[in-house]
Amino acid sequence: MAAASRGRHFIAMTRLRPFVASLALALAVLAGLIGPAAQPAAALSTAGWLRFGGLGTAGDEVISGPVFNWGCRGGELGRYAYRWGCAGANNRYLMGHAFAEFEPLFDFVRARGVTAGTRGLVGKLVTWRTPSGDVQRYRVSWARVTTVGWWGRTGDLWAWNATAVPSITFQTCYGARSEYRIIVRAVLVG
At residue 190, does pLDDT exceed 60? Predict the structure, then answer.
């Protein structure tokens, strides 16, 4: 009789698990612990076209392609480059995954080490083409790798802050568990 009782208990728990998992997921979404799914790039408007050369492990790789407007929101990014709309005036804040669109930037820093990699980015040229077709050139003025915590607490002062001159700021993940951010600032030169 004890064995039959254990069998029914096991079957009941097995049927209950999907319900409990669904309930936990719904509560996490409602609590804001899990953001909305990435919106397909086709559904987003184009912010412009980017070209950032001289990257990658060999220095001959390029980030090139459309940048989509992400708006002022959070959530999971897709595989493209996105312009975050919450940055201050004159600051085009671009985000992309280190395993996707911004992989050449990640590879450049990783192959050289943090200090040499960030120093090696300074002076590189970035070309931006607006949706109306205007072409602007930017030069990297600084780059750094910082912890996620410090970036999150102080980023409004130096990363996504308003800038005196038109700038582009790049952000991507770094580290074995994405515990760091690579932040690169380029300023308008012509």
Answer: yes
